[in-house]
């Protein structure tokens, strides 16, 4: 499907725009599932100031959706109306070492790259990020965590731009973190973050990262077309355990499957649609609800229109 082309109207309202606007841009190639429809408009800002200029002049009735590495995302088959903002390039992909064992990273920096930079600088406490297959922006939005660490444990502050085009700074307290969730305003596009570590030995940190990576490779289908952990753990239970107990291991809908390796991962076996994947997730939720009375909450973000 395709949407009406509104790029010309948007560009006319923001004459000093330096970023790139694309009409009806395919999103599936960006997603780990490799599914989904197009963005009505895909915007790649040149830097934070360009993003602020764009948002301040965008018509208020046009919705804005932000995507990152798309490692924990389903783009529905009907595509995403309005503007999809995707950060990239040098302005959002750099890491800087700061005094007092701190790092600043752009929102487009992969979590693994942040962990490696910390290890190289002898900064301990950020190694858990190597087990998260996303970017800093996503980690801020969902308080991403793995292997005993969470974003809330190490965040000093986050920078972003709100829907009115105001550049803002959020402290850790402002973020309102809870398990796999942030109370930060939904309209904010995060652009950077500062993290606090502690002194560490680079070799020891690297060894810890190697252990985390090996554990992930042995237990998760990371070489499949997947989207990371599908459901948040319904504490005190583990999502994969209640899914397994409900008989969902290997369950198939269309060409989507519950991973036989790890029940909390859905995989595209090659020809699945976004509808197959989301439908499979909803079937898993139904079976778990009927089996144990537990209501699973989606951890994978789902955006756009159904076909």
Structure description:
The termini are close together. This protein has three domains: 7-89, 2-Layer Sandwich (Uridine Diphospho-n-acetylenolpyruvylglucosamine Reductase, domain 2), CATH 3.30.43.10; 91-218, 2-Layer Sandwich (Uridine Diphospho-n-acetylenolpyruvylglucosamine Reductase, domain 3), CATH 3.30.465; 221-303, Uridine Diphospho-n-acetylenolpyruvylglucosamine Reductase, domain 1. The longest helix is centred in the last third of the chain and has 19 residues, at 274-292. The strands form seven sheets. A five-stranded antiparallel β-sheet has the order 6-7-13-11-12. A four-stranded mixed β-sheet has the order 1-2-5-3, with no helix packed on it. Strands 15-19-18-17 form a four-stranded antiparallel β-sheet. Helix 4 runs antiparallel to helix 8 (202-219). The protein is α+β, with helices and mostly antiparallel strands. The chain is globular, with a radius of gyration of 20 Å. It contains ten helices and 21 strands. Helices cover 30% and strands 27% of the residues.
Would you kindly provide a brief summary of this structure?
The chain has 307 residues and is of the alpha+beta class.
The tally of helices reads 10
Average residue pLDDT: 96
**What topology, given as strand order, has the largest sheet?**
6-7-13-11-12
> Low-confidence stretches at least 5 residues in length (pLDDT < 50)?
none
Radius of gyration: 20 Å
**Which range best describes the helical content: under 10%, 10-25%, 25-40%, 40-55%, 55-70% or over 70%?**
25-40%
Give me the CATH architecture of the largest domain, please.
2-Layer Sandwich
Instruction: Give the CA-based shape.
Output: globular
Overall tally of domains:
3
What's the β-strand tally? 21
Given the helix and strand composition, which structural class is it? alpha+beta
The CATH class name of the largest domain reads Alpha Beta
Q: What proportion of the residues form beta strands (DSSP E)?
A: 25-35%
